[in-house]
Amino acid sequence: MKNKELKILLSAPRGFCAGVERAIEIVEKSIQKYGAPVYVRHEIVHNKFVVDDLKSKGAIFVEELEEIEDKSRPVIFSAHGVPKKIPEDAKNYNMTYVDATCPLVSKVHREAENLYKAGYHLILIGHQNHPEVVGTMGQLPKGSIDLIQNEDEAKKYSTRNKRISFVTQTTLSVDDTRDIIKILKEKFPDIKEPAKEDICYATTNRQMAVKNIAKKCDLFFVIGSRNSSNSVRLVEVAKKSGCSNSLLIHSQSEIPFDLIENSNTIGISSGASAPEILVDNFIKELKNRFKVSIDEVEIIKEDVVFKVPKKLN
Predict the structure, then answer these.
(1) Domain containing 30 — which CATH number?
(2) For the purposes of burial, counting CB atoms within 10 Å of the CB of 114, is it exposed (0-12), middle (13-18) or buried (19 or more)?
């Protein structure tokens, strides 16, 4: 008996960003052009559903180039970007490679390089071991870029370098980085900042959309993977914006129907690497149990498209 009424506020924009769409398309077009298998270094994007789908089409995922048995096959670098050394290694192996690094991550790479060449010591605001951070730090010689992960580390940070500058990981929380940057500017009044913020448009838009509805919700769900930085940030943003009951729904999650039973309004968003079918499936599960009304709340229309490399067309 579906007698419980449930209002869903569906956050928009949500889900795939242009960088993720481009990366997935690069893998699919590479399989069409070169045949299967093609190798992908690191998960192309952080989502199990997407990775499994591409595996079924002929992609083989590896963490390092050394693992690739047949080096005559092409390899694709993930959307998160790679250290400079990786394309060099691929050339040394005589491998064909396609770089699916998101253009907005590549922009940060170029920015870091230009600042280094101009004589700056760099700070990267980001999360240790995230592939994007590994890739950005790997653009520069060791010792020329330092990682700061939080406000605490920013307060403790010291350097003898007179000329310092910072860049940031593209998928962080807009508010968190603002606080870290404020601390760095107070400590180093001459610190050089990026001409344009490094946090990408999709991260910013998705966080704004969640902020916009979180305070009206009893419960908030973000569909995405545990290793997806932008998905985890969306949960934090929902909590900070007034919905303390905010949860990540990933591939192993059980839907907490008991919590939903006690809620009248729930919010739903999804990370930039989560396909819309996962949101649809989640809502379908809810419709099986509750009388559902859906209100899609859109704050901005996105029309960004990134082209795939010419050699795949």
Answers:
(1) 3.40.50.11270
(2) exposed
Collapsing DSSP to helix, strand or coil, 152 comes out as: helix
Q: How far apart are CA 53 and CA 121, in angstroms?
A: 42
Structure-block tokens of residue 140: 């520069």
Rounded CA separation 263/292 (Å): 12
Q: Which of 70, 9, 77 is nearest to 36 (CA)?
A: 70
Q: Which residues make beta-bridge pairs with 166?
A: 123
Whether residue 1 has pLDDT greater than 60: no
- Edge to edge, the sheet with strand 59-62 lists 59-62, 38-41, 75-77, 97-99
Instruction: Give catalytic residue positions.
Output: 132
* Nearest by Cα to 267 from 238, 291, 289: 238
Report yes or no: 83 and 105 within 8 Å, Cβ to Cβ.
no
Q: Which residues pair with 5 in a beta bridge?
A: 291
Which residues are CB-contacts of 313 (< 8 A; sequence separation ≥ 6)? 29
The domain boundary residue, chosen from 165, 199, 233: 199
Q: Which residues are bridge partners to 294 per DSSP?
A: 8
Q: Are 7 and 262 in contact (CB under 8 A)?
A: no
80 contacts 105 by C-beta, under 8 angstroms: yes
Give me the residue label for tokens 């919010």: 267
**Which H helix or E strand runs over 49?**
helix 48-57
Enumerate long-range contacts of 117-122, CB under 8 Å, 24 or more apart. 119/163, 120/161, 120/163, 120/164, 120/165, 120/192, 121/145, 121/146, 121/159, 121/161, 121/163, 121/164, 121/165, 122/146, 122/164, 122/165, 122/166, 122/167
Distance CA 106, CA 95 (A): 21
Same domain, 88 and 115: no
Checking if the pLDDT of 179 tops 70, the result is yes
Which band of pLDDT confidence, cut at 50, 70 and 90, is reported for residue 106? very high
For the entire predicted model, the pTM comes to: 0.95
Structural domain for 22, as ranges: 18-99
